[in-house]
Amino acid sequence: MSGVQDQLEIKFRLTDGSDIGPKSFPAATSVATLKESILAQWPKEKDNCPRTIKDVKLISAGKILENSRTVGECQSPLVDTPGGVTTMHVVVQAPMEKEKKELNQPQKNRCGCVIL
To answer: Which residues contact 85 (CB under 8 A, 6 or more apart)?
Structure first.
């Protein structure tokens, strides 16, 4: 690979249609590092702000990207054009804490027994 191809221009499309970037990243950058960059650049005025990289899913070419993979490994030759900007979609997962708390609550007895 040449030095130009080792760098990828990536913009991150948020669910409301706004973008973060584009920004240049080396092909060896991990997906987890991309997520950290998104957290650092997240617009302060947005309501649905992720707290950790676990709250963020990145989708490129219809595939959810794994944190351990590199940007170069995730490139799709059919979608990504050399020297172009790659768009990755950002999905923020709803916090599961409230749902977990509700699941951990003891179930109320809804049985009504009649003793004669």
So the answer is: 9, 10, 11, 22
Residue 8 host element (H or E)? strand 7-13
Q: With bands split at pLDDT 50, 70 and 90, how would you rate the model's confidence at 99?
A: low
Q: Average pLDDT in the 39-51 region?
A: 86
Query: What predicted TM-score, i.e. pTM, was given to this entire model?
Result: 0.72
Helix or strand holding residue 38 (H, E): helix 31-41
Residue 58 CB coordination number (10 Å) = 22
Range 7-95 classified under CATH 3.10.20.90? yes
CA atoms within 13 A on the CB side of 95: 9
- Name the residue ranges covered by the structural domains of the chain: 7-95
